[in-house]
Amino acid sequence: ILIVLLNILEFNPVQLSYATILIILIWLAVAVRMGDAYHRRIKQALQVPSFKGLIMPRPTKESIPIFEQALSSTNPAIVVYALKMLEESAPQLISSNLGALLDYPDDAVQLTALKQIASLSSPAMSTDVKHLLQNKSSPAVRTQALETLYVIDPDFVTAKLATYAGDPEPMVHEAALSIMRRHKEPMIVRQAAKMLQNLALSTERSSRMIAAGVIGKTAVPDDAALLLGLLSDTDPTVQQSALQAAAAAQFPAAWPIVISALARAETRSQATKTLLAGADSALPYLEAAFSDPSLDPQVGAGISTVLQRSGGLPAIAILEQHI
Q1: Structural contact between residues 283 and 311, judged by C-beta atoms closer than 8 angstroms
Q2: Which pTM value belongs to this model?
Q3: How do residues 62-114 score in pLDDT, each as one tens digit?
Q4: Contact indicator for 35, 62 with CB cutoff of 8 Å
Q5: Contact 21, 47 (CB under 8 A)
Q6: Phi/psi zone of residue 106: left (φ > 0), alpha (ψ -120 to 50 degrees), beta?
Q7: Which end of the chain has fewer beta carbons closer than 10 Å to its terminal beta carbon, N or C?
Q8: Residue 203: φ, ψ to 5°
Q9: The predicted structure's pLDDT at residue 316
Q10: CA 163 – CA 222 distance, rounded (Å)
Q11: Contact 145, 131 (CB under 8 A)
Q12: Distances (CA, A) of 225 to 116, 159, 272, 322
């Protein structure tokens, strides 16, 4: 612009000074409008229950007051979103708001607040979290409260583990037993091993499902025999839980049973997901099964699906051998 003013329009120094002032004023006006548009964009997003389709700018210092104000919204989605943005842009401001959010009448908000309390390792919130654990009806919130308390008040949880490991709510029961398995005290770990074995061998379907869930979260090599038994369970619901656990545990001995689950409609989908999660570790077992002349056609079709969806060169090579 200056080149045009000097060389083409031949402005003198006085004219150039006025032109420069005008350019600066225009630039400031544009900057203010852009700032207003930024804040309008944030407020627009915070008024929409779902944020799909909105490309949001990264949070800045200017947006922090807007997100703080959004924490008092009656829309749970707005509160959860604002909490996540504050965690990214101003984590030091979160702790002063979390206590009130534990009383928010929505599980998603309470779950998000509990997770952030755990990430902050804030012992000051222990009393409020205990209240949720002991009085909340939502299994998911009680489970997260127990896991959060184990971070911020481990002594309290340790003293209550045996109680919560027998909780009538399966999610809480599973979480408590998983904590026992990760505990630093060997005696508690041994107690958890015995409880897990009893659950896995129980005649109650719900108990066997809890056992599978615990193995999925805290698998150790000694769990292989229990998991193989659960994978061979006659109840399809238990099998589903065991297949999910097998995806996390990835015990080599489990792959043949997982592959055989491709034959049954009620377990085929989960078996496929588990084998895909197994990646390269499951490939030798898939190849061996694919080469079996007595292979069940349903299993063969399932293996083909797994190999196609895995997409790696070794998987493609196995497919090409059987075309």
Answers
A1: no
A2: 0.77
A3: 678 888 888 888 889 889 988 888 888 787 788 888 989 999 999 999 999 99
A4: yes
A5: no
A6: beta
A7: C
A8: -85, -10
A9: 85
A10: 25
A11: no
A12: 37, 30, 22, 33
> Got the DSSP string for 76-98?
HHHHHHHHHHHHHH-GGGTHHHH
Report which of 314, 300, 309, 234 is spatially closest to residue 277, judged by C-alpha positions: 309
Residues 6+ apart with CB under 8 A from 270: 240, 243, 244, 261
Answer yes or no: is pLDDT of 49 > 60: no
Examine the pLDDT at 193 and tell me if it is beyond 90. Answer: yes
Nearest to 206 by CA among 162, 170, 232, 230: 170
pLDDT at 279: 80
Are 188 and 196 in contact by the 8 Å Cβ rule? The answer is no
Helix axis angle, 76-89 to 107-120, nearest 10°: 20
What pLDDT does residue 165 have? 94
Helices (H), the chain: 2-3, 13-46, 64-70, 76-89, 95-101, 107-120, 126-135, 139-152, 154-164, 170-182, 186-200, 205-218, 224-231, 236-249, 255-260, 265-278, 283-290, 297-310, 313-321
Tokens coding 181? 């398995």
Give the Cα separation of 133 and 163 in Å (integer). 12
Matching residue, tokens 């037993």: 177
CA–CA distances in Å: residue 89 to residues 34, 76, 92, 115: 20, 20, 9, 17
Q: What are the tokens at 11?
A: 């402005």
Which residue, chain included where needed, has tokens 């989908």?
A: 269
